[in-house]
Design goal:
The structure is a homodimer of 424-residue chains. Chain A is α+β, with helices and mostly antiparallel strands. The first copy, chain A, has helices at 9-13, 24-35, 78-96, 137-140, 188-201, 246-252, 279-282, 287-294, 331-335, 379-389, 419-422; strands at residues 65-73, 130-135, 179-185, 206-215, 268-277, 346-347, 350-356, 362-372, 396-406. Chain A has one domain (1-424). In chain A, the strands form 2 sheets. In chain A, strands 5, 6, 7, 8 and 9 form a 5-stranded antiparallel sheet that branches. A 4-stranded antiparallel sheet of chain A has the order 2-3-1-4. Chains A, B: Residues 55-215 form the Dyp-type peroxidase N-terminal domain.
Chain lengths: 424, 424
């Protein structure tokens, strides 16, 4: 850890007093010991390893709860941003291991300083917490075209702004952002605690732009998980990329050497879409209509015309009436790799309910998250086709959108989120 | 079950077609078999008994997740309202036992009707689901003074509108309501599924007014539960009324014969307050200040001046400086029964995070819920005192409020939510 690091810097920026800075060497040693811990996340309360070639929280078997946040960077100083990323990395290593962000008593032992941890997760297990970071296009060049941090020439071509899709009803205030953090855990209190403490640490350098809570069961990311159901009541993610598909992950998920700037090798791109579902209308649609729209049966999740959930779709099959068994405008056909030149995504979405909408309806839907090697060849063409033709669109509205470059994993105790991006 | 009952009535009101009504006798038998099941909710995935002297979900050990909803009744017909309450009761008995609200395929086998269950909880265990109903003041007499359902003369005096409290910043659109339903479960998908299916069944008779999701750990309601922490990071509910305090529950929680109209005997009153917490400001407050505001230590939760969480508060103690050890304006002193003529509440609140507030802050706080025998002698005087003097107010804002009369439990398979209220 470099000499500029100080766990308390951001707090002192907040005007909370003159609490003493931790000597950089001390903090480094503290972190190294922690990061070297052997961590296993097999049981629900356990810890997921933080260090690795790739960031955790992507192929990690999808935890049940989400707190997603996007920050805007409010400082224009590159050194402050780098300091924050170092500090966040340390905190993320501690939090994912089930430790607090820092002592609940002040570092220097004085009760006259704010605690270094907000306390609401005291006594709770690690709960499978993962923290995954991504950098939005505006971090590289802001809305005014400024290269605030001297990294515009390192912006990956794959991080090109998403096009407008037919039907988009996006609220810019709840999309985009300079930096995103995805917190997933089996306990929402643990996920919320982690995001809140990162926000607290970032006070004075970043401002929370938007945030979304979600609960599980919209995509499994491992063959060990049962396929969950979305709020349309259908199994979702049957054909998702899974952690066990090593070759497919190389092809469709992880940025490979030569794909673009070297700092992204081993990383991936995240697209988020907050998709409001008109569930009240859906619930008054006949079962036959629902199944025709999805292209699968509601009970077992089998493709229409097949019996088992994991049976291969037969996109060519026609019925006795000469019509396609899986309708031309069904969601499963339009989203299928065979309809999209083989393009696949690792989806990791969550259901959400944001209260009601003031019109007597639940503000419910899917917070779609998809990781991929290059959105220009994956999400963009798939969504272009879905936005034009998907029969499900009648029941959906895309209300927010985000795109982020997620760097590779933190590999050593000296590494930090985005180090290669900021190395000179 | 009376001959007027039909599980599909509300769906046909929705214009979904002419699906055949279930014969009342058949539905009654189906429900009776279900309600007679022995149910035990000891394990996390298990079922909590629906039938009982009191409604479940009050002294039931607090589950970790909440979906709370308030409906306005849109029909003016008493018979429609009574039908709905019958239908909801049946559905609640099924849902809390871990069954679907109805077949996912149509009742009469036709795929041309909407499913009788929305499907997203298929395959999930009962998850400790409880459904608890309450009736707001406006059910008895609406804002225009109308007695729509002929029950104005049965309105309990204890259901008097709450007064305005100092500092209240209430949004009427997200408070109040004619009927509330509290869904608590260990799995949010199960709680959301239950509320959504009640809303679906109620289509045409009720409209969702507001709704709130919450996650756990703000009050334990049983001595078997560890005291959880709120989003200020402090243990909350140490001195809460607990399920084991049978005599105290009679005194402070359950409406006794002679308290008011007979239909409420065995019931209780629920006050909800959505309390936004200024957590970013709190997080920049010193530990000493936080502990002085709460009146307890942050680490162990012990009262100031004591060592253990469950040590009795010494409200009279003074320190070497002659000042009160537990400050005069501390939350724990002002909320303590000794400061409020012995008044106690059974609190059952949940933490919430509704995204961010557009000002760079989390939209976070406490969804306070307190059950009690008479709000006029319990919540109202306690909150009047807190609103005037509590040092914590600087970090709080009450943004919504609700008051509901929760009838006693459903005791037999012929009973239904509010039967005694509507019996002639």
């Amino acid at each position: 850890m470099a000499g500029r690091f100080s766990r308390r810097r951001m707090l002192t920026v907040g005007g909370a007093g003159v609490a003493g800075a931790v000597a950089a060497g001390g903090a480094g040693a503290w972190a190294r010991g922690l990061m070297a811990e052997e961590q296993h996340g097999s049981e629900a309360g356990g810890a997921v390893a933080f260090l690795g070639e790739h960031q955790a929280g992507i192929t990690t078997p999808a935890q049940d709860r989400l707190h997603f946040v996007a920050f805007d960077v409010t400082t224009d100083k590159r050194a402050d941003l780098v300091d924050l990323l170092r500090e966040w990395t340390l905190a993320a290593a501690r939090l994912t291991a089930g430790h607090d962000a820092g002592p609940v008593g002040a570092v220097n032992g004085s009760p006259e300083a704010p605690p270094d941890d907000t306390g609401e997760a005291l006594g709770l297990p690690p709960s499978g917490l993962t923290l995954t970071v991504g950098f939005g296009p505006t971090l590289f060049r802001d809305a005014g075209g400024r290269d605030r941090f001297g990294i515009a020439d390192r912006k990956p071509a794959a991080l090109a702004d998403l096009p407008h899709f037919r039907g988009d009803a996006l609220d810019p205030a709840t999309g985009g952002g300079d930096i995103c953090v995805q917190a997933c855990a089996h306990d929402p209190q643990v996920a919320v605690h982690a995001i809140r403490n990162l926000a607290r640490i970032g006070f004075g350098a970043v401002s929370m732009r938007w945030s979304q809570l979600g609960f599980g069961r919209t995509s499994s990311t491992s063959r060990a998980q049962a396929t969950p159901r979305n709020l349309f009541g259908f199994k979702d993610g049957t054909a998702n990329l899974k952690a066990e598909d090593t070759a497919a992950l190389r092809q469709h998920l992880w940025v490979q050497a030569g794909d673009g700037p070297a700092w992204m090798t081993g990383g991936t791109y995240l697209v988020t879409r907050k998709i409001r579902m008109m569930i009240e209308t859906w619930d008054r649609t006949s079962l036959a209509e629902q199944e025709a729209i999805v292209g699968r049966t509601k009970g077992t999740g089998a493709p229409l015309g097949k019996r088992g959930e994991f049976d291969e779709l037969n996109l060519a099959a026609t019925g006795a009436d000469g019509k396609q068994v899986i309708p031309a405008d069904s969601h499963v056909r339009l989203a299928h790799p065979d309809t999209n030149g083989g393009a696949r995504l690792l989806r990791r979405g969550y259901n959400f309910v944001d209260g009601s909408d003031g019109l007597g309806r639940l503000g419910a839907g899917l917070f779609f998250m998809a990781y991929q090697r290059d959105p220009r060849r994956q999400f963009v063409p798939i969504q272009t086709s879905l936005a034009r033709n998907d029969a499900m669109n009648e029941y959906l509205r895309h209300v927010s959108s985000g795109l982020y470059a997620c760097p590779p994993g933190v590999r050593t105790a000296d590494d930090f989120w985005g180090r290669a991006l900021f190395s000179s």
